[in-house]
Structures are given as structure tokens and as C-alpha cells.
Write a structure and sequence with these properties.
About 6% of the residues have low confidence. Strand 18 and strand 19 form a beta hairpin. The chain folds into 4 domains: 182 residues, 2-enoyl-CoA Hydratase, Chain A, domain 1, CATH 3.90.226; 38 residues, no CATH class; 148 residues, no CATH class; 81 residues, Nucleic acid-binding proteins (OB fold (Dihydrolipoamide Acetyltransferase, E2P), Beta Barrel), CATH 2.40.50.140. The chain has 14 helices and 21 strands. By secondary structure, the protein is an alpha/beta fold. Strands 2, 3, 4, 5, 6, 10, 11 and 13 form an 8-stranded mixed β-sheet that branches. The chain is elongated and about 110 Å long. Helix content is 42%, strand content 19%.
Amino acid sequence: MENSAGKFVLVLICLLMLPAAAPAEPNQALPAAKAYVIPCKGLIDNGLFESIRRRTQIALDQDAQYIIYEISTYGGLLKSGDDIAKYFLETGTKAKTVAYIKTEAISAGAMISVSCRDIIMRNSSTIGACAPVMMGGKLEGVEREKTESVVRGFFGRAAEANHYPKPLLRAMVTMRIEVYRIRNKQTAEYEFFEGDHLPKDPNLYDLENKELVDGDEDLLTLTASEAEKYGVARAAVADRAAALDFLAERDGVAISRPEVVLPINWSEKMVRILNHPAVVSILFMVALLGIYIELSTPGVGLPGLAAVICFAVIIGSKYLVGLANWVEVALLVLGLLLLLIEFFVLPGFGIAGVLGIIFVLAGLFGMLLRNPPNRLPLPHTDFDWQLLIYDSLGMVLGFVGFIVLAALFAKYLPRLQFLSGLILAPAAAKKGDEFEVSMTGPPGVRTRRVGVGDVGEVLSTLRPTGKVTFAGSIVDCVAQAEFLDEGTKVRITEIYGNRVVVKKVEDPS
């Protein structure tokens, strides 16, 4: 008993000699993190790329730790998708980039999504189907394989950089790729293999229970739950707030709320609309129609102003998305100046007119490709060719529309009395040495035929173009190397098509 009591006293003394336990400290605050949300929706084009770059730079300048790209797109231009995807990979070295797929990320949308460090998908959203297509044509054989190999290569690099299943991403690009999911017996983890690269060791892999994820006749598209199951998406969530909660819990940070949203501004929306091929075709058609009407009517008026405005809008919108530089603008302006000189100064149609058309076409089509000023705007890659074809479609449609409307205007406008002043009535059929020229006259007065040698009187000052009356018929004329005042007697010296060249009559008597 004494030994037991002694031991008890000894233990009690030791406990008393121990230092008092420090009171429990409260939980340390989690490090704060700032998140910026950048919506990316609609057609993927150069306008969206420029907008994304502007908004991303704002987020980086504000020391954003997370940049959430909110994706809702069915795709668009493959070249623009490639530009955005490369930019996302670069941005991922400066901040944590997250593709939050709100509705769908199809085609080029899938390309830009896998370029982010994380993919988080809203429930019921989809991702995939990035097989290249060609506007107005069909990719087949070697051309398809050539284009797909480039896209597959990019998807493969993105998979390695951001730790996504490489076979699944490649199957989003090419139909013939067959993908299986097989469990590794040693790690108990599932791995993905393409059909022609299946493992052969049954001791290492559960080959008997392999799962076919994508067949060789299907282009892979995954729902949110499938993408989460197969490791393409980090999580499938109910909304954006839940996505931020997932990131905060996984990374052990406190993401500040509310998150900052950087929407596309109105000017960027306008530029994207103006660069759409359908809008470009309308602007190009109106510009050509304005020039046609202006050349068919005396003086300079509203049609010419409309043409100038349309060309200015086309040039300005291309310049703002980086497709037009000073070389293309200079070529276009020089071409227009040469055409004006040809129409209003030089008689006939010669070198100035031909050069003007060449320069205008070179300037317009040069704006369809992104190139530095020291390099010719020529397509060098399959992406460049697809972009050229896509944007050229608008120009071609606009030209076709111009031909149709010009024919209708030439046929019907002169017959409408209240619009007869907008376009000159055609002359009667020529006979002998008479020529068919554009002329008009007062209502009810039949226009007469004119020919070389006819004498008339200047109705409006020729500077050097203007109106001359020949026995009641009014004809658009061009003075030969001089300006002529109203009332001056002139004689027709030459006729080129519908262009009448006149010269002052030295001795009116």
C-alpha cells in the first residue's frame, strides 16, 4: 500500500511540474484570392479574340489569381479558336485559368476550353465535337487528315499541359479514334487507351472488363456528368457560385465575393457584328451600288456618300480586329483615288482604272488575313485558307447582290417618274456614226441621239464633269483638259461607251 501511495504521489508531482497547455488558437484565416469572370459566348471569331485579350489583361493588371472563362459557344472560326487557345495556355502561366462551361463548348469552343488549367461544367452542359469543317466545301482524304492532324496535335499538347485524358481529347477531333477505359490493377486507377494502342498485360490491366467510351464511327461529345466521370471536367456543378466554392475548397483559399465580371462592351459587340460575313456582304453590296448610281447620275450626292461610309466601316472594323494594317488601307485608298481620276479626269478607261481595280481588290482581300505590314497577306496554313474562304464568302455574296440590284435599277428606275432623277435614262439605239450614251431629259420630251461633232451648251459647270444640253436632251459629259463654265458652247470630240468627251467651241458662230 505504501509503495502504491508513493507512486501516486510521484506521478502527481510530475504532472504538476509540466507547463500549462497553451489555449487552443482559433483557426487561421484562409489566404484570400481574387476571381475575375470573362464571358465568352457566341461565334468564335477575331472580334471575340481581341475582346478576350483586352479583358484578360484587365484581370491580370488587377492581380487576379483566378480567371474564369464562362463558355457558351457552338464554335466558329478554327483560326480564331487556335489563337484564343494559345493565348489561354500562355495566360495559364500567370493565373489559374478555368473554363466554366455554362451551356456548351462545341467545336472550337472545346479547343479553347481544354486550353484552360481546369474545366468545370454546369449540369447538363456538353463539350466536344471539334472536327474541322470548311465553309462552302468539304474536307476529304488527305486535306481532312492534314487539318485534323494539326488540331489533334494541339489537343494532345493541351492534354499534357493541363492533365486531361489525351485519347479522349483526340477523339473529339477524329471519328475513327476508338477509346477504351481500363482499370490498372496495381493502382486501382482507370486509364484511357486508343483502340490500336491497347495494353496486352492481363496481370497489370483488367482487360476483360474494358469499357468502350467512344467508337470509331462517333465523334466524342461528353455531358457534364460523363466529363466528370472520365476526368475531362474537374467537377459538375449547379451554377457559377458552386464552381467557385469547388475551387476554394480544393485549393484551400477564400475567393472574394462577389466575383468581378468583365463583360464584352458595346463597341466590341458592334465590331463583331460588322465583321460577320453576312453584314460584310451587305456593306460591300451597298458600296458598289452607291458607286454605280453615282457614276450614272450627274454631280456628287447621297449614293457616293453611302459608298464612302460603307467602305470606311469595312476598313475600320477590320482594322479594329487586327486584320487590316496600314498597307491594306493604303492600297484601298490609292485604288479608290485612281478610279476617281479615271472616271472624272481621264477620258476612256485605261491604266489608271485597271490599277485602281487591282489595288482595291488587293486591299480588300488583304484585310481577310492577319499579317504584319512587312509580309504579303497570303495564306500559309490550312487555317489561313479556311479564314480566307470564310471571309471571302461575304465579298462574293455582296458582289452577286450588286449585279442583281444594278440590273434591276438600270431597268426600272428610269421608268419611275418620282425616281427618274436618280439614274440617267439610256439613249435610243445608235445608227451610223451615232453612239449610245447615258442621257435624260424633261418628262415627256423624247431624248435624241447624239454623236461625235454635235454641238451643245454647258448646263452645269464642267469640273471636268457636268451636264450639257443637246437640243433639250441632257447628257453627262467630261471636258477635255479644262474647266468650262455654264453657257459655254461645246462640241463632242469622242465617245467611249457611255462617256462623252467634249471640247470648247473656239468659234461658236
